[in-house]
């Protein structure tokens, strides 16, 4: 199984924002899904090599910011720069919004933001799956979510039907 | 947190195919993501109420069939009919392909198919997260993946940029 299997999924692109002892950080993630309806749980898989991983273990909460189609450059910057080397919030690239239930800042201009409290975490191969309970959600109806697939950023295309349960 | 948070993600739509003691079943799932690069692990969250859940616990393997944009009706049928009531494979709706490493059938006409061996499982709220190691992958380059977002089925739209790591 040498081929990179993960590129064939269509992924929601998010920024995970964290704060611990007045230091803030954020990173791009795309391995993120809902895990439970009641309680509302979301999972995000993060490598232990990432600086954000340490924050999550300590602060036990995070902002989950679903990027909009206008935020490709933010995704690119936050996904390729480490908070160990520079304070990503000091660049004036990210406008922040005040959270209601957590300390970590939320990112402005996103399609949606969710405030999450860490509920659990599991080791899955070379990543840790952090499971967060969604405490607050804000949706920006004027925006459209940013997708990642086979190394490309996309917007949603044609509507092909409705899911009827 | 009364709002249904999960609808704001963009999800890859898959069919999970299973076989146990010569009985086969399949179901639609959209809570699916990569969890590890090495080993290659994928996670899919499935409610214990689903018939497929029992198969997974016993057979400990599954086919992960990433649907193409031409398979909206298959998603709809497999997602709204229970294998407890009818044999979904008996309807002539699903063409199958032989697997290489597992017993569960693979579905023809998909964007990609992955053969997975169960590596782990975790309880996450009202769902079980089944973690599979990807043993085989087949990609149909002529197809495009089917997406689910806010209750609608979509195809990928405009390419907005490339991810450069």
Any idea what the radius of gyration of chain A is? 15 Å
Structural class of chain A comes to: mainly beta
> Which pair of protein chains has the largest interface, and what are the residue counts?
A-B, 67 and 67 residues
Put simply, the count of helices of chain A is 2
Quaternary state of the chains: homodimer
Question: Per the principal axes of the C-alpha atoms, what is the gross shape of chain A?
Answer: globular
- Estimate the helix proportion of chain A, in percent: 10-25%
| Arithmetic mean of pLDDT of chain A | 95
**Mind telling me the CATH superfamily name of chain A?**
Electron Transport, Fmn-binding Protein, Chain A
Distance between the termini of chain A: 35 Å
The count of domains of chain A is 1
Query: Taking strands numbered 1, 2, ... along the chain, how are they ordered across the largest sheet of chain A?
Result: 3-2-6-9-10-5-4
The main sheet of chain A comes to: 7 strands, antiparallel
CATH class of chain A: Mainly Beta
Tell me what portion of residues of chain A adopts beta-strand conformation: over 45%
CATH topology of chain A: Pnp Oxidase, Chain A
Low-confidence stretches of chain A: none
Please tell me the CATH architecture of chain A by its name.
Roll
Explained architecture:
2 copies of one chain form a homodimer. Chain A is mainly β and 165 residues long. Chain A has one domain: Electron Transport, Fmn-binding Protein, Chain A (Pnp Oxidase, Chain A, Roll). The first copy, chain A, has helices spanning 51-59, 72-80; strands at 11-12, 14-20, 23-29, 32-36, 41-46, 61-66, 96-97, 106-107, 112-124, 127-139, 147-149, 152-162. A 7-stranded antiparallel sheet of chain A has the order 3-2-6-9-10-5-4. In chain A, strand 2 (14-20) and strand 3 (23-29) form a beta hairpin. The longest helix of chain A is centred in the middle third of the chain and has 9 residues, at 51-59. The model of chain A has no long low-confidence stretch (mean pLDDT 95). At the A-B interface, strand 1, strand 4, strand 5, helix 2 and strand 9 of A face strand 1, strand 4, strand 5, helix 2 and strand 9 of B. Strand 12 (152-162) of chain A pairs antiparallel with strand 12 (152-162) of chain B.
């Amino acid at each position: 199984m040498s081929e990179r299997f993960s590129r064939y999924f269509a992924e929601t692109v998010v920024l995970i924002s964290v704060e611990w002892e007045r230091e803030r950080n954020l990173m791009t993630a795309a391995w993120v899904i809902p895990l439970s309806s009641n309680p509302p749980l979301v999972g995000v898989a993060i490598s232990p090599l990432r600086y954000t991983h340490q924050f999550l273990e300590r602060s036990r909460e995070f902002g989950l910011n679903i990027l909009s189609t206008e935020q490709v450059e933010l995704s690119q910057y936050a996904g390729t720069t480490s908070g160990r080397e520079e304070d990503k919030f000091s660049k004036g690239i990210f406008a922040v919004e005040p959270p209601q239930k957590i300390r970590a800042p939320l990112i402005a201009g996103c399609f949606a933001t969710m405030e999450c409290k860490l509920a659990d975490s599991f080791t899955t191969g070379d990543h840790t799956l952090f499971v967060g309970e969604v405490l607050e959600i804000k949706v920006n109806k004027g925006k459209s979510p940013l997708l990642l697939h086979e190394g490309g950023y996309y917007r949603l295309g044609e509507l092909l039907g409705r899911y009827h349960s």
